[in-house]
Amino acid sequence: MKQITAKQLYNKLVKECELIGKKGVILFTLNNLPVQVTTKDTVGNMIQEWLKAYMTQQELSFEVNPSSQTFPDIYLNLKDKKKGLLEIKAFDFRRGAGFDLANFESYCNSLLDHSYRLDSDYLILGYTMIGFEITIHNIWLKKICEIAGGSEPYPIKVQEKKKVI
User: Fold this and answer.
1) Angstrom distance (rounded) from CA 74 to CA 76
2) 106: helix, coil or strand?
3) How far apart are CA 84 and CA 116, in angstroms?
């Protein structure tokens, strides 16, 4: 298995795999009855599953976080779990990014003990879905400071509900 950085993975997806513009479908089979999925609520998870299969096929070294609800999604550096942290995000390209970067309060609290998380990479895929066909429109590799913008009344853009971030 070959160790890879987030930047190298990004380059493989964009330049070698030429993933931008590629089309795919989500197919679910139960009791020998295949169904082509047309709802968007599973797209992000399916893209993440595809990425793991792609990395395995390419014999790239990585480890999936055993807890799917905690940060990060993937460890790229198996020798030092404070480096090579990768989050995978997907969004409907026509609607704009609406994904959560993290549970904001938990993320901020975690930085007190785990400041290295600020150096994590976010692999972001913008897609469209027409019927059951998904098209990858763009891919970005960003740091948290590049995707968290400012807004009133907070110094960074957050989602606030009932006065709770």
Assistant:
1) 6
2) helix
3) 10
CA 120 – CA 75 distance, rounded (Å): 10
Range of the domain at 106: 2-147
Rounded CA-CA distance 37/132 in Å is 6
Q: Confirm whether 159 is domain-assigned.
A: no
Q: Say whether pTM exceeds 0.90.
A: no
Q: Would 162 be classed as within a structural domain?
A: no
In-domain check, residue 97: yes
Whole-number pLDDT of residue 156:
57
Contact 128, 137 (CB under 8 A): yes
Tell me how far CA of residue 83 lies from CA of 64, 101, 114, 125, 155, in angstroms. Answer: 14, 18, 11, 22, 27
9-to-34, 52, 53, 144, 159 alpha-carbon distances in Å: 32, 11, 13, 18, 30
What count of residues does the chain have? 165
| Domain count within the chain | 1
Q: In this structure, are residues 148 and 156 in contact, taking their beta carbons and an 8 Å threshold?
A: yes
Query: Which candidate, 81, 62, 64, 82, places its Cα nearest to that of 73?
Result: 64
User: 30 has which bridge partners?
Assistant: 33
| Residue 160 within any structural domain of the chain | no
Q: Work out the pLDDT band at 75, boundaries 50, 70, 90.
A: very high
